[in-house]
Amino acid sequence: WLQAQIQPPFPYNTINSIAALGTLDIAKMQTLLEEFSNYLRTSFDFHNPDRMVSIDRELALVRSYLYIEKERYDDRLDVQWSLDPNLHFLLPPLSIQPLVENAVNHGVLRRNSGGTIYIGITKNEACYEICIRDNGVGMNEEKLLSILDRSSDSNKGIALKNTDRRLKKLYGKGLRIQSVLGQGTTITFQIPK
């Protein structure tokens, strides 16, 4: 399930971008290749799919992913970060990155002008709250209600469903999704201290 969250078009498109840069800008190509290597190494390091990873490791994966997508889409993708200082906690692997990837592909890149992804992590007395927000196309009420429906036979939304399921199993609470058609989507979840 975790490996199914990694969408095949992303590696193929990244390899094509690396190849194209090979004839245009060797330094950029090398940097992109390094980030892609970081992304793959972190993504496929699953000796035990139930293990936890540090927030630093998960954010390294997110940063590599976003670096690659920013290289591909340039000014169509803006990224804003708001991270409380001194974050040190564990969370399930691939719990933030697939949500960011979803926001990029199904949110901001569906708009001709692109948009902004916001990634925030705040800590309070009881938990760490992770927020991924985009100003993309958003969803209507029907789509919003069906997105985490496990009874659906569709393979669409596997990353969201899987992340929600794992969070509920571990912490009793899953993803909270709010969306407004034409304005964007916000997904939050909490990791107890």
Distance between the termini: 26 Å
Question: What's the total count of β strands?
Answer: 7
Strand order of the largest sheet: 2-4-5-7-6
Radius of gyration: 17 Å
Look at the helices and sheets and give the structural class: alpha+beta
Largest sheet: 5 strands, mixed
Which spans have pLDDT < 50 for at least 5 consecutive residues? 1-5
Helix content: 40-55%
Task: Give the amount of beta strand, in percent.
Answer: 15-25%
Q: Count of helices?
A: 6
Mean pLDDT: 83
Given the C-alpha coordinates, what overall shape results?
Answer: globular
Write the element-wise H/E pattern from the N-terminal end onward.
HHEHEEHEEHHEE
Features:
single chain; 193 residues; alpha+beta; five-stranded mixed β-sheet; two-stranded antiparallel ribbon; 7 strands
Overview of this protein structure:
With 193 residues, this protein is of the alpha+beta class. It has 6 helices and 7 strands; from the N terminus they run H-H-E-H-E-E-H-E-E-H-H-E-E. It has helices at residues 9-24, 26-43, 55-73, 97-106, 141-146, 158-171; strands at 53-54, 77-83, 90-91, 115-123, 127-134, 176-180, 184-192. A 5-stranded mixed sheet has the order 2-4-5-7-6, with helices on one face. Strands 1-3 form a two-stranded antiparallel sheet. Helix 2 (26-43) packs antiparallel against helix 3.
